[in-house]
Structures are given as structure tokens and as C-alpha cells.
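Please go through the protein record below and explain what the C-alpha cells say about the fold. Record follows.
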Amino acid sequence: MVPPATAAAPNVPVSVLGDKYAKETLALRDSIITYATMDAGDFKVRVPLIKVLKAEGLEWVSKYARGGSARKESARRMYIAVDALIGHLASNGFAPMPAPKIKTMLKTIDEAKAFLAEGK
């Protein structure tokens, strides 16, 4: 049987999920909350934040959920939210995310935070 860490991406190193993972995950969560709660018409703040979110989101995924595979439940939940956000931005540019999608994304990152607090 292949260990879970190598089953999804053979010959690809998997980042160690420790304090750095927790800090980066919570920082990205805060950025996502800022995006979700900000005024959609404030382009002076919104446009730079979207650029940062795209870069941070892709970097986070490459470290902790490469290929959509994550070892911890918190990383799985966070990946779902980041993937939804980056997908929306890729398809819709600077258009606001619909309220139901924002609600689901915020619920998902709250679940990620709860799992992170449990060490999962």
C-alpha cells in the first residue's frame, strides 16, 4: 500500500505542515475574509487585493495542496475555498463573487480554521 503523502503526487516532496503552515493558512484566511467583506466598488483597494490573493493562493496551493491533494483536513477545506476564489477570479475578473458563493467560501474557511485548531 502506498502511503497517503505520496499517493497523489509521486516523487513530489510534500511540505511539512507545522507552525509555518498554520501561520500562512490563517494569513490567507484573513485575506479571503477581507476580500469577501469589502466594498465591491472600492477598486483602489480591491484590485491590488485581488492580485495579492491570486499570488498568495497559488503559492499556498503549491506548498500545501499540490494537485488538489492535501494531507490534513484543514488544508483540504482551505484548498476548496482557495480553488473557488481563484476560479471565480479567473472566469470573472474583478466582478464581485455572488453572495451565496461568498457565504459558502467563508463557511469553508471557518471549517479550515476549526480543523487547524484541532491539529487536523
In short: The chain has five helices and no strands. Helices lie at 4-7, 19-37, 43-64, 73-92, 99-117. Residues 1-15 have pLDDT under 50 and may be disordered.
